[in-house]
Fold:
Amino acid sequence: MQAEVLSGLIGFGGALVGGVASFGGVWFTLTHQRKLTQEARLLEIGLVAADKALNELIALGDFLGSVRGDVATLHTDERAPYLDTMFDHMRNVERAVARIPSRELRDRVKSLFVVMRQFRAAGVRHFFAVGWLTELTDELTELLAAYIRSDPLPPFSERTKEKRRRAAEYEQNQRRRYELFQDRDPANVDPREENAMDEEPPAS
Structure:
């Protein structure tokens, strides 16, 4: 009798282990399939969004190519009418890119848009600003096209790196110029500047 009970318990234990293993296999398969489905869905959303953003950039490039005449001769401190259309395209690109799952791509696009908004760093006339914006639009177009092709994202071109440098320098100069007409903000004062101001002028 004890042998029969022991045999039954062993059989039950084996069935239980087999059932657990079978359940675990099904659970793993379902989880893996769910993950693959989610990844495929995100990829589809990303490609649709990238395609929309790319079309906006192509339209923006074509539009910038049409900006000529009196508008191009305006000083960049003057508000040129073409900027409204340009910013509309940029907003549409930003909305589309926000749906792309690639953080690297989103960050790259965002950093280029920062440079585009500093178009006044290009020169004193909108003629130079249009060229600046056109070249950055081309860079963004290449970036989105590489993502759609599943190619590695290309590095920034040398001319774009130079624009980023000029934009940062322009922003810094603008900030200094603004601070000349405002009270000094202690949070934004370099301690070295304070020390220099506190020093007595050398005796003549």
In short: The chain is about 75% helix and 0% strand. Residues 2-65 form the longest helix (64 residues).
